Amino acid sequence: MILSLLILPIIIYTLRVVVFSIGAARARKVSFPEPKGDCQPFVSIVIPSRNEESNIARCISSFATSSYPKYKFEIIAVNDRSEDKTADILADLSGKVDNLRVVTITEESVEKNLQGKPGALQAGIDAAKGELILMTDADCTVSDDWIATHVNGFADPDIGMIASFTLVEDKAFFHRIQAIEWIFMETMASGGIGLHQPLGCFGNNVAVRKKDFDDIGGYRKIDFSVTEDLALMSAVFNTGRKVRFFCNPASTVTTLPCLSLKEYILQHQRWAIGGQALGWRATIFVLASIAIWAGIATAIVTSNWVFLSIILGVRLLGDFIVLAPSLRVLKKGRLIKWILPSVTFFMLIELIVPFLLINRNVKWKGQVFR
């Protein structure tokens, strides 16, 4: 019995590594689409902005060097009831950036059935003129080929949505841990798409065909979720349209890390609550981590240090195997040396995730959601 409790976690986690490695490899195969002809549809970039005075100018400025023709895309910044200087900054930028449009949400104009970020995105998309909608956040900057790479992906008329990797600025130790975590999570999510099972994405780097967004009724018809990106991905996937997850440095955006442990924990609470929408898929995913911890506990109680070493080795090596290809493709090989301390940190965070589900109130941008 004890031997089974020690061996079973190794088998379960190894299976998870193999399955997601296969799925992620499949996703990477379609991450570098070739341009087809001179097709350059008009594109709308939607940026929800609430209290982003420190970030919004930097975000919009990152489009100045875009390789996509300026007259072929518009930037729609949605000022969602900001209480800081976001509105003033956007007003100033709109006089300097020709293809910038500002949409303002007020307390009077907000749609009561559209809470938080989904409401801001819906307002921006309602105003959009583009055939394709690209979404990012105000605390992000985009790569020069970000628009063009997504446009190339939509050359396949059967594709309804594309998600791509978000990188985290990694100037300090805590930031590097987050950078690795995001790439790990995105690799697993891309593996899900490679296996035709939507598991999630980050809403600061997604693109959708406007017709497909309208056909599903937009966020007005999608049940509210604190992880609106997963909700949209699932809705598009359920229509039978193709969903892709690009692992390509040209399709990345770069976001800012959490600066404090409290902010980091609140972020993970939001992810944990939103991830419950995955149902049985979330359960299977979590079981692998539970199995590892059960094996660790059994090895410690029985003083079986050999098996403890093997179980820890399987976890560390397994996560390395999943992560390494993405780090290589995204040109983030310098982060490889941080995998060991990062995975150790993630394992500790796993222990507190169940407790994060106790409080169902999610705080985001000065708002509270359930």
- Outline the low-pLDDT stretches: none
Strand order of the largest sheet: 3-2-1-4-8-6-9
- State the separation between the terminal residues, measured CA to CA: 42 Å
- Integer tally of domains: 2
Task: Look up the CATH topology of the largest domain.
Answer: Spore Coat Polysaccharide Biosynthesis Protein SpsA, Chain A
Which architecture of the largest domain does the CATH hierarchy give at level 2?
A: Alpha-Beta Complex
Number of strands: 12
Mean pLDDT: 89
**Strand residue percentage:** 5-15%
Which CATH top level class of the largest domain fits? Alpha Beta
Helix content: 40-55%
The run of helices and strands is HEHEHEHEEHEEHEHHHEEHHHHEE
CATH homologous superfamily title of the largest domain = Spore Coat Polysaccharide Biosynthesis Protein SpsA, Chain A
Structural class computed from helices and strand pairing? alpha/beta
Descriptive notes:
This protein has 370 residues and is α/β, with parallel strands linked by helices. It has two domains: 2-25 and 275-356, no CATH class; 29-267, Alpha-Beta Complex (Spore Coat Polysaccharide Biosynthesis Protein SpsA, Chain A), CATH 3.90.550. It has 13 helices and twelve strands. It has helices at 2-29, 56-61, 86-94, 116-127, 146-153, 173-194, 210-215, 218-221, 228-238, 261-275, 280-301, 305-329, 339-356, and strands at 43-49, 73-80, 100-105, 132-135, 140-142, 159-164, 166-168, 206-209, 242-246, 253-255, 362-364, 367-369. It has a seven-stranded mixed sheet with strand order 3-2-1-4-8-6-9, sandwiched between helices. Strands 5-10-7 form a three-stranded mixed sheet. Strands 11-12 form a two-stranded antiparallel ribbon. The longest helix has 28 residues, at 2-29. The protein starts with a helix and ends with a strand.
